[in-house]
Each structure stands twice: as C-alpha cells, then as structure tokens.
Write a structure and sequence with these properties.
The complex is a heterodimer of chains A (336) and B (392). Chain A has 336 residues and is of the alpha/beta class. Chain A has twelve helices and 14 strands. In chain B, a hairpin with a 2-residue loop joins strand 4 and strand 5. In chain B, helix 1 packs parallel to helix 13.
Chain lengths: 336, 392
C-alpha cells in the first residue's frame, strides 16, 4: 500500500468522488489554481475544470447558501471552509437551512452537502486559525459530524461523507496534514468501517481514553508512555462526533471502569461533557471513578506562544489518566 | 455555470451586451402601464413583451388576483377564529405576485418568502398546503419538486442564495430554465441578499431577484433600509435592474418576462423592484396602527392593484356580468376549499416529531424516540399506543 500524507489522502478521496459522481462539485476560496491554502485540492481544478472545482467569491454564507441551491438542483456540493474560525459567517445557512431542510420538507429535499473544515491548533497561527468549533454543530440536529485522525480514514471517510444523503461536517486536523500513513485506495466504501463508528485503536484494560482528530495520535503516544508504568490504556478514536458511537464506548468502559476524554476545544458544553454524561447514564455501575476531561481551557484560542499550554499534550493526558486511576496527580489533595 | 464563457459578457455595470435597451439600465423611472384609474399607457419597450396577452388572459389575471385576495382574507379570518396560529397577509401585493408568477415557465424554479402565497397558489400549490405550516401541522406545506416552488423561507433573504445556487446548477446542466428569488425591501439589507448578487453577477447565473418593495419591514419604513432606490443597488453588483409599479400587473409581467428572457439566453441576473404596498399588518400578530399613518394607507388604497385592473377591463368593455359572476364563484369555491381543508387537516402523530431529521437512521435519535414512545405508552392510552405503533 502506498504511503501518503494526510492532505494527499483527502485529495485522493476527493478525486475519486469527482470521478465516480458527475454531480459532485467542490466549492471554496482559493481551491482552484492554488489548490487550497493547504493544497488539499491540489490539481483537481486542472483535471476536472472550473465547472466542478469552483473558486468562489469570499463570502462564506454565500458559499453555503449557493451550495443549498445546488443541492436543490441535484448536486452534491463539497464546500471547503478555509479555516475553522472562518465558518461563523456561514453558521446561519448551516444551522437554519442545511440542517433543517430535510426535516422542513418532510424528506422531499435532501441536503447531501459535505463541509470540510480544517480545524485545531498547534501550527503557530494568528487568531481565528486554530479553533475547534465542532460542538456548535454536534448540538445541531440534522447534521452529521465526523473527524478524521489518520490518512486511511481521511481517504475513506471523505468519500463516505460525500456519498451520504445527509449533510456532513468533516473536521480535518490541520496540524496532521503532513503526517504520513499507508492508504489502501482500493478499499470498498461499503465494507469499510462506517463513518458512524468509533474505533478502538489501542486495546487496554485499565482505563478508556477517548480522543478524535488531532489528539488521537497524542492519545496513542500517552498509552505507550503509560504502558511503561504498567498501566494499560485503551484508546478510542471517536471518528463520528454526531452521532456518537455509544456501543463501542460502553463496551470499553464496561471493561475498564474508567473514562478519560480529551479534546482541544474548550471544556464547557464540549464533546467531553456529552460523552461523560451519556456514559455515566448508561454504565454508572461499571464506573470505578468519575469521568475525567482533559481539554482546552474555557478561553478564546490563545496567541501562539501560549497555545501549547492550552492544547492537551501527552503529559496532561497522562495526568488525567492518573486522576481516573486514583494515582498521585496534579490535583491530589484537592477536594472534588 | 462557473465559467468565464466568452459571449456571455462581463459583469460590468449595465450588464453584458452594452445594449441601448433601457431595460438593461439600472433603476430609472417607475414603469407603469396601467394608471390607478385603469388607463392603459403605452410603453415603447415593455409593450412588445405583452403582445400575446389577450382579452381573455386579462380576465384570467383579474381572476387570479381576486382569488388570492380572497384566500388572504379567508386565511386571516381562519386565524382570527383560532384555526391558524398565524398568517402573513399579502393584501395589496396581488399584482406583484400574480404578474410575476404568471410570467414563469413550468420548469422555472421559485424560491419564495413567507408572504408569497399568491405566487405559490399561481404555481399550483394546493390551498390547504398554503396554510399547513401556519396551522402548525408541519414546518412547510408542500413538496417543492411537485410545483417547482421551494418551501417558504422565514429567515429573511436566505432564499436568495438558494435561488442563485440553483441557477448555478441550471447553468452547469446546460438548461434554459431560470431560478427566481422573491424577497422584500427589508431583505435587501441582509448579507445573504448582497452575497447572492455577488455570486449571481460573478457567475452570470440565470436568476431573477424579484424584490417586492412593500414599504414596510414589520414597523421599519424602507428609508431605514436604504437611502437610494432599491433598484439602484443592483448597479453596484453589475446587475441590470428595473423599477416597476408593483400594483400594475402588466408592468410586473413585462418586467419579469424581460428578466427571464435575458436569463434564458445567457444574459445573467436581473433585479426587479416592484413598488407596492403592504396594506395589512406584517402578520396577524402585528398592529400597524402603532407605527404608520392612516393617510398613507388611504393614498395606497387609491392605487389598489385589483381595482385598477378592473377599471381597465371596464374601459375595454370586458367587465361583463358573466366574468364578474365567474370570478366571484371561483373565489367563493376556493375560499370554501381552504376553509374545509384547514379544519379537516389531519393532526400529526406525536412520534412524527422524530421523522425526517435525517435521511438515514440515526442511533441517538432512534434511542430518544424509543424512550419517548415507552413514556407515551406508560399512560396506557390505547389511542396513543396505536398512533405510536403507526409512527414506527
């Protein structure tokens, strides 16, 4: 199997979708000749033409609203939002139109729109370029929200998202764009793991560590480090943020009895809160300790010289694992 | 679509082609073909777009306008009687809606706002479907693809982008139909309408922006939205525009035909400002006496769209007793159909709340539905249990 970068894997998945379905149209800012600011759409306009890989005016609501009209006309638009922090002008069209159209029209009008969002920090960017806005969308009925953590999933899941008749937000971890991995391009989308399923990426028995997107790699590193101390960490890559795959989460927590959730997004009202609450409801009597969240702080995304304090790193995650296990940790001695 | 096709012209002000034809100009004088007194005024350019409008068709336009006014009155009465939760009256805007809708071809696609019930009726939406959402029995009344009318948009101006995107799709398909966005004067301040005009101009998309300037956005007069005529805004986007008397069904129809023809032949978007007046409240929940002068209403009553067409018919000797009787009978029948359809509308089942959120099963929602279904069943009400079973 070929090795390819994360960005290349998405590119290859997009190419496959463009080849397989003439109704697939890519839209976004700078996605044509430039190939996108991250080069994810590199070469696609050259090969598929300006009709299908469309450089749009700089208006995010305009991009999303015209994508709605194209979907009405039978197209499958794939929209690139250039950076996470630029998605807000499109928020009304996503929440009030894209998410609700199928419900509003009692299923008559489908919105097979894929919204690609490079997200997350760790690349030393200025403000608005490092955010993790996924919870705004997981809170919105009618949307499916996924996040990919490795090149193979990036390749497979972009195609699954485009094939979905429901709107999908596809969150790509921009700090992993240059990571390489093996990608089987002959994978059968129908037999591949569904984009709605979580995956156990490291098996373990002492504690369940849940991550998605950029932090899956960090979580796996943490599991390796913990193993050195004799702690067996089971790492789960959520993959789907809405809906969450509770069956996989429950099975793991019933086994380990302990749960740590990590994400870059701020803590309050985040995915970690939903996972912790739902798992507590579903397997309270299997829990040996309160679920632990290791997340970004409830602050605006900080300036880059401080971002490594904001982003959960290997040591903060291990500290969270220690809390879940009742081992000495940074909060030892504090009540509650 | 999406092309820089040679021959379709650029996006500079005045539109492609540099024609001297005044319909390509922006804004300009208000075009009126029927005076408030019902006198037909000739117009060097607009008249040529109306040559096929026969006496019979004039009568039919009159009928449609009378019928939608009657639908509007009946729906308002149904709201007052508690049969509808809310209704947005279109009283006064009949010529704008019928004149434009009657200019469309069947395969053109309309993206209306909540007040465009006359347009929807004219396109073949069933009368009970017009009120389905206003009764609270659904979020929207009809399947858009059966009538080529999107469901009515409540978010102000959002549909202008949908129309533009649809038009980009038409272009990509190589078809010659047109998308039409209906919105009001207030919507012209929304970012979405402005972005729609940017996209439409940039791609030269076959879309018509049909703006009914009814002078009021709830309580805000149009001068709060704009210091220039709304039609003049289009020139900043490089979109040709026309400003027509929106209470004159022929002027509206001619302008819409001009715009549609341009769009069908690769000439790109057009903005039409139909200058009309909202004679009623914003909705049945509104009280316009708090913010507007009764004299203003009187002035506009004198320019009523139906009475002026009636006067024209009379002057032409077409207002026969037969026509009047036929129109009255049609209005009565449609009103009765609306009333019957409203009162006898089937109630939604409790578990319908979960239907159509997604097009494929969703594990979260399935669980919530299962739990709520058990909750309902816990009351042991056989009727409830039956409706629950039916919803599965």
């Amino acid at each position: 199997m070929p090795q390819m970068t994360f960005a290349r894997a998405i590119n290859s998945g997009l190419r496959k979708s463009l080849e397989n379905d003439p109704k697939v149209i890519l839209m976004g800012e700078d996605i044509g000749a430039l190939g996108g600011v991250f080069r994810v759409t590199d070469g696609l306009q050259k090969d598929f033409g300006k009709h299908r890989v469309v450089d749009t005016p700089l208006a995010e609501s305009g991009i999303m609203g015209t994508a709605v009209g194209l979907a009405y006309r039978g197209y499958r638009p794939v929209v690139e939002i250039q950076f996470d922090g630029f998605i807000y002008p499109a928020f009304d069209q996503i929440v009030s139109q894209v998410a609700k159209m199928h419900y509003r029209t009692q299923g008559a009008v489908k919105m097979p729109i894929t919204i690609r969002v490079p997200f997350g920090g760790g690349i030393g960017s200025p403000e608005h370029h490092s955010e993790s806005p996924e919870a705004y969308f997981t809170h919105t009925s009618g949307l499916r929200v996924i996040s990919v953590s490795n090149p193979q999933d990036a390749y497979t899941m972009i195609q699954q998202a485009i094939a979905s008749d429901d709107p999908v937000l596809y969150f790509e971890p921009k700090r992993r764009y240059h990571d390489k991995g093996e990608v089987d391009e002959s994978i059968d989308l129908n037999t591949a793991l569904s984009m709605e399923k979580a995956r156990v990426v490291t098996e373990g028995k002492d504690v369940t560590l849940v991550a998605y997107g950029p932090l899956v790699k960090t979580a796996r590193d943490a599991a390796l480090a913990a193993a050195d101390e004799g702690i067996s960490v089971e790492v789960i890559d959520l993959r789907s943020l809405a809906p969450l795959d509770f069956a996989t989460l429950e099975a793991s927590v019933r086994k380990t009895g302990r749960l740590v959730i990590t994400h870059e997004a701020a803590q309050s009202g985040g995915l970690g809160a939903e996972v912790a609450a739902s798992i507590t409801e579903r397997c309270f009597y299997h829990l040996e300790a309160a679920p632990v969240r290791v997340t970004g702080f409830d602050v605006p995304y900080p300036y880059s010289k401080l971002e490594m304090h904001h982003l959960p790193g290997l040591d903060r995650i291990l500290d969270g694992v220690d809390r879940a296990l009742g081992r000495p940790n940074s909060l030892s001695g504090l009540e509650g | 679509m999406f092309t820089d096709d040679a021959g379709k012209g650029g996006i500079s002000a005045g539109g492609p082609g540099n024609s001297e034809d005044t319909t390509r100009r922006t804004g300009g004088d208000l075009v009126q073909l029927i005076t408030p007194e019902g006198e037909r005024i000739s117009h060097p350019e607009f008249d040529s777009w109306l040559q096929d409008v026969s006496d019979e068709q004039l009568g039919s336009l009159y009928e449609d306008m009378v019928v939608i006014r009657r639908i509007d009155a009946e729906a308002t009465a149904l709201q007052r009687q508690g049969e509808l939760a809310l209704w947005p009256p279109l009283l006064g805007q009949e010529a704008s809606q019928i004149g434009s809708a009657r200019a469309l071809r069947e395969d053109d696609f309309v993206f209306p706002s909540y007040r465009d019930n006359g347009v929807a009726y004219c396109r073949g939406v069933k009368v009970e479907d017009l009120v389905r959402a206003w009764r609270g029995n659904a979020s929207a009344g009809w399947d858009p693809f059966t009538v080529n009318v999107a469901t009515q948009q409540i978010i102000i101006g959002a549909q202008s982008l949908h129309a533009t995107g649809y038009a980009m799709g038409i272009q990509n398909d190589g078809a010659d139909c047109v998308a039409v966005a209906y919105f009001g004067d207030g919507a012209t301040s929304e970012g979405d309408v402005n972005e729609a005009m940017v996209f439409a101009a940039s791609f030269q998309a076959p879309v018509v922006f049909f703006c009914q300037n009814n002078h009021w956005a709830i309580s805000e007069p149009v001068r709060v939205q704009s210091h220039i005529q709304l039609a003049d805004r289009a020139s900043g986007f490089g979109i040709p525009s026309m400003r027509v008397d929106g209470n004159d069904v022929l002027a509206v129809m001619a302008a819409t035909r001009i715009a549609l023809d341009r769009a069908r032949h690769g000439g790109g978007p057009t903005f039409i400002e139909a200058v009309t007046y909202r004679m009623g409240p914003h909705t049945t929940a509104d009280d316009p006496t708090r913010y507007r002068d009764a004299n203003e209403l009187e002035d506009w009553a004198a320019k009523d769209p139906i009475s002026r067409l009636k006067s024209l018919l009379d002057r032409k000797g077409l207002l026969t007793a037969d026509l009047e009787a036929a129109v009255a009978a049609k209005a009565d029948a449609v009103a009765a159909e609306l009333r019957y359809g409203t009162i006898n509308m089937p109630e939604p089942a409790p578990l319908d709340i979960f239907k159509h959120v997604y097009s494929t099963p969703n594990s979260w929602l399935d669980r919530q539905q299962e739990h709520y279904s058990r909750y309902l069943a816990s009351f042991g009400d056989p009727a409830e249990a039956a409706s629950e079973e039916g919803a599965r």
